[in-house]
Amino acid sequence: MWDQNKEKLGVTGHRGCKAYMPENTLISFREAFRLGVDVLEFDIQLTRDDVMIVMHDSMVDRTTDGTGSVWFKTLEEVKTLDAGVKFGFPGERVPTFEEALECIANEAPAHMALNVEIKEQRPRVADVAIELLEKYGLLERSVIASFDAQTLLYVQDHYPHVKTQGQPPVKMKRYDPRVLDRMYGMGVPMSLPDEEIEELVKMLDEKGIEAWGYHADSRAAAERCMKFGFTNITANDPHDLIAYLDEIGRRIYK
């Protein structure tokens, strides 16, 4: 996945296939496997009893039938929540990070890479994430992402062999320009106007950083990504984009 060039594009499934599946769940990940995404993106954070789970929000309210903060719930409490009922898949549970990694290691396509986004600002979260990715033999296929520059600097300093992905400087918390020196990829929001994207891509090219567009859920958005020379597209619904890129011969693994 990581030997990319601007003639080919990879497709990232955002939290699996969040457009029509309960995000950050195993059923959503398995749908992404079935479609053959090039990269699976998902989010991690720790419960009160220090177990890493897969969840985007700091509150459980939006994606489950429960209420309250992830950080104040034990794993046992999190596991009582239904993460699928609001989306037509009752009974789906919030997976632990290890459950997700086991599923990926055993069921995902061999070429599929991982984009693991850390949602907290504690160094321990990065330590645990990298330890578990290594345990399941998935670290080389992974990039650690964060909107927090200090988290990425910590990873870059303590795990120089691990790939990191950040955001444009104006979108990063606790920004430090040094984070760009060792960054592997940058997520570029497609909501930015063309002139801002052009300026970002110029800077990224100079630093040798991959430019990855998000969220590009239409063929027109994919065309825009290709115009700017992006090498990866993050989609909430990757199905149509995969079919389109296959059709025009621009898919990275085709």
Question: Which keywords apply here?
Answer:
9 strands; eight-stranded parallel β-barrel; alpha/beta; 254 residues; single chain; 17% strand
Q: Class by helix and strand content? A: alpha/beta
Q: Helix and strand string, N-terminal first?
A: EHEEHHEHEHEEHEHEH
Shape: globular
Mean pLDDT: 95
Number of strands: 9
Taking strands numbered 1, 2, ... along the chain, how are they ordered across the largest sheet?
A: 1-2-4-5-6-7-8-9
Largest sheet: number of strands, sense, barrel closure: 8 strands, parallel, barrel
> Between the first and last Cα atoms, what is the distance in angstroms?
12 Å
* Beta-strand share of residues: 15-25%
**Helix percentage range:** 25-40%
Taking all Cα atoms into account, the compactness measure Rg is: 17 Å
Low-confidence stretches: none
- Counting DSSP H or I runs of 4 or more residues, the number of helices is 8
Present the secondary structure layout.
Elements: E1 10-14, H1 26-35, E2 39-46, E3 52-54, H2 75-79, H3 97-107, E4 113-118, H4 123-135, E5 142-145, H5 149-158, E6 163-166, E7 185-189, H6 194-207, E8 210-214, H7 219-227, E9 232-235, H8 238-248
Parallel strand pairs: 1-2, 1-9, 2-4, 4-5, 5-6, 6-7, 7-8, 8-9
Antiparallel strand pairs: 2-3
Helix pairs in contact: 1-3
